[in-house]
Amino acid sequence: MTNTQQEILRVSDLSTRFFTQEGQVNAVADLDLRIERGEVFGIVGESGSGKSVTARSIMDLIEPPGEITDGSIEFHDSDLADAVRDDYPEAVDGEYVDLLEVPPEIRESLRGTSFSMIFQDPESSFNPTLTVGEQLAEAVEVQRRASSRPRSTRAKTEEYSFGSFALSTVLPSKKYVTEESRNRAIELLELVGIPDPVERADEYPHEYSGGMLQRAMIAQALAGEPDVLVADEPTTALDVTIQAQVLDLLADLQEETGMTIVLITHNLGVIARMCDRVGVMYAGEIVERGSLEDVFDEHVHPYTEGLLGSLPDLDGTTGRLQPIAGNVPSLLDSEMENRCYFADRCPKAMEDCLDHPPEYDAGGDDHEVRCVLAERRYDRTRALPDGYFGETERAAADKHADPDRTEEDVQPERAEGTVESSGGDRL
Amino acid sequence: MSTETPDTAGAGDAPADGQPLVRVDGLEKYFWENNSLVDRLLGDDPVAVRAVDGVSFDIQEGETLGLVGESGCGKSTTGETLLRLQEPTAGRVEFDGQNVYDLEGSDLTEFRRDAQVVFQDPFSSLDPRMTIGEIVQQPLAVHDVGTEQERERRVRELLERVGLSVEQLDRYPHEFSGGQRQRIGIARALALDPEFLVLDEPTSALDVSVQAQVLNLLDDLQAEFDLTYLLISHDLSVIRHICDRVAVMYLGEIVEIGPAADVFEDPKHPYTEALLESVPRASTDEQDREIETLSGDVPSPRDPPSGCRFRTRCPKVIPPEDIDIDRAAFRAIMDLRERIEGRDISLETVGEDGQFEFEDGRLAVGDRSEFVATLKERVLDRDLPARDDAIVEEALAELAASDWEAAAERLRDEYETVCERQNPPLSGTGTETRAGAGTGTGTGTGMEKAGPSSTSDGSSADEDHPVACHLFAESGHRAPESDSR
């Protein structure tokens, strides 16, 4: 990791909210991200932590009632900067373009060619009535038209009018748009390691296995030769042996094309296998980020520690798991207090945690953490009393799920920046 | 067959080391496709999906047996069938010495009380229209246990025990998070004070931090109530964490079974090895760990491969004895064979457009050598030893005449491996177990994996840790079988 790496994506103060009947949900709040060109950046967190919303915000795939309410997403692309500088001077900063300041057509035109995304569930991401080859060719065609008339969305998709619908009921569907795009689709299938791509291109999604379909989806995402590939839980639906294949494939493709990958997953093993740098998300924020080593070995935030301590170990150095008590908090604005959102589950909650912590520098190159423990040691005299947050359920869960963990177990003496608790050791 | 000594196998009686609580012997569960009236009228033969195909194991009282495998390997079906939630196709399951499938009346009711199940998905396994108090109380009511007051007291006790608060008794499932719902499911399973719990992926719908809470809870409950668990999971680290013994399943069969520490530290079956290798470790050393990923997908249980079911993906598939070839090259040849046997190569698209013209499925003789070279380049990504290279070329030349049969035959003649002729029995190393070459192709119930026969001499057998792989059979066995070639 070098500092000279160029940042391809700078996300600052990003807030994405959902305005639902129950109230405003702060899915992502004040999120900062710096993603360097050519790296694999991992975002890890539990369900409901906002990792997928982050990915979709970057991709501009947030749909009502969701809305990006604040922040900027700056993308490094000097051509794009030149192209929009005259029309939208406020969006351009050097070679960076703030994607939230340019009109939706331009953002849309970047999709596929600059940003691309693969999803968790390949089975539901393909159209079951078209062959895989057709769907790939369609992506190829869309990208080809987009690049022949850049920054224009008119050419991106063919008009789908009532006329064409009526026609399609009479005439057989026009399969591949051109022979060229079909060939490119086959090339792409070959690139992602699908055996016999020529035949496979004419098969329907149900004839593919889950792993193959995930490969096909990767192929589709690569159709526009994107600079940034956002992979949202790309292997969660797959078995471990297939997961290993797909991860290998992603790593190979990344090496070959030099693209940047933003990998979103709940699986810490996948993060460890793939990523250069990691952000740990909790309740819509990144609570700790840094290099893989920073986060796995030198973590400061008790949540990171809790996540790692919750993992059963494959090498069998058994011991009792050290789970995090309680449950993922509600992100309803009305229920979120202005404090550290983890304080109610945190074994080291102190009075200081009642203020929402800023990002502290936790030592190391680019290691930042939203926890006061980065600044001061855990001080038991300042600890919040049990039941401070008044959750009966937490007490009950604690008592049974984790009777071993008493106050004595919490290590009061801890050096800043390092953790030597059981969670860290057993990695 | 798991823990018994060779001489007790087949007899089906209790081994000396105490009666197991659960004994599964040759359990089979097939599902039938094309089995509707219409299909029968049309004369279509039903197709068997062999979800569980001859599985045998014991579970000792108080232990936790893990059943691990990828999706579709039959692990959940095994769990459901042994609880008699599904009727088996064949085989027997003894619970406390009684055959579960023969039970009737009060004996069956008693079995239903003693053996309980916790399901994977806490979102669909609780009735949304019942309060959690009612849900946990229902088994008590069904089995008519105690008075109303006693039942209520029991429900409170159970909820407290699994870490829920009694005040939540009147709430509905949708008000709870996934982890809490799984606790409710566990409380319900415990209501009748069972001896045996089948845990079917109890934590796979949960986040890691919540998963850890539930695993700890299960641990505590086992110690407190002397429970015996069958834990079904695809997550190897969960299995490792709470199981005493582990059975690894692949395509309806157990390929390896043994104490958890042995299986994880010294896996024998190439599938177990690959499975363990595939799990990404949450550690900073992970990126330096070289892993050899398994190629291909799990074959369909409708038409499982003959012989050893893992042979289509096995990196250690055994070459015929007289052939000197390295593993990777042999694997490549076997992959090619498979594609030829499955006619899974499109000949029309070989070469540049219009380079090779097929007429009536045949290629003009003059083009053939060029065709073979082009095709070989496409289907084989490595160089073979000269002798094997020649054989492969001969086979590919048959394809130029679209003679798939001949091509497959040529390769089969040369490269038929013991792995495809015989389904290796699940046995300790070095035991004589061959049940005749004919039955190995996987027809019906002839696939006996009934374990070691008594002829074993000087078995260096690891009886606690049997494995179903030809690599662990005595090497001498392969010689006579090669005569058939």
TrEMBL record, chain A:
Localization (cell): Cell membrane
Ranges of compositional bias, category Basic and acidic residues: 391-404, 411-427
EC number: 7.2.2.11
Keyword terms of this UniProt record: ATP-binding, Cell membrane, Ion transport, Membrane, Nucleotide-binding, Translocase, Transport
Keyword Transcription: no
Top-level enzyme category: translocase
Tagged with keyword Transport: yes
Catalysis: reaction(s): Ni(2+)(out) + ATP + H2O = Ni(2+)(in) + ADP + phosphate + H(+)
Main subcellular localisation: membrane
An MF annotation (GO) of this entry: ATP hydrolysis activity
An example Gene Ontology CC term for this record: plasma membrane
InterPro entries: AAA+_ATPase, ABC_Ni/Peptide_Import, ABC_transporter-like_ATP-bd, ABC_transporter-like_CS, Oligopep_ABC_C, P-loop_NTPase
Gene Ontology biological-process annotations: peptide transport
Membrane topology, record value: Peripheral membrane protein
Chain ranges of the ABC transporter domain: 9-308
Region (Disordered): 384-427
Subunit structure: The complex is composed of two ATP-binding proteins (NikD and NikE), two transmembrane proteins (NikB and NikC) and a solute-binding protein (NikA).
Protein name (record): Nickel import system ATP-binding protein NikD
Lineage, top ranks: Archaea, Methanobacteriati, Methanobacteriota, Stenosarchaea group, Halobacteria
TrEMBL record, chain B:
Alphabetical GO biological process terms: peptide transport; transmembrane transport
Any matching Pfam family: oligo_HPY
Record has Nucleotidyltransferase as a keyword: no
InterPro entries attached to this UniProt entry: AAA+_ATPase, ABC_transp_ATP-bind, ABC_transporter-like_ATP-bd, ABC_transporter-like_CS, Oligopep_ABC_C, P-loop_NTPase
UniProt keyword terms in alphabetical order: ATP-binding, Nucleotide-binding, Transport
Domain ABC transporter: 22-276
Signal peptide from the UniProt entry: none
Biased composition (Basic and acidic residues): 283-292, 475-485
Comp. bias (Low complexity): 1-18
Region entry Disordered, spans: 1-20, 280-307, 419-485
Highest taxon above the source species: Archaea
Molecular function, one GO term: ATP binding
Family listed: Belongs to the ABC transporter superfamily.
Name assigned to this protein: Oligopeptide/dipeptide ABC transporter ATPase
The species this protein was found in: Halobiforma nitratireducens JCM 10879
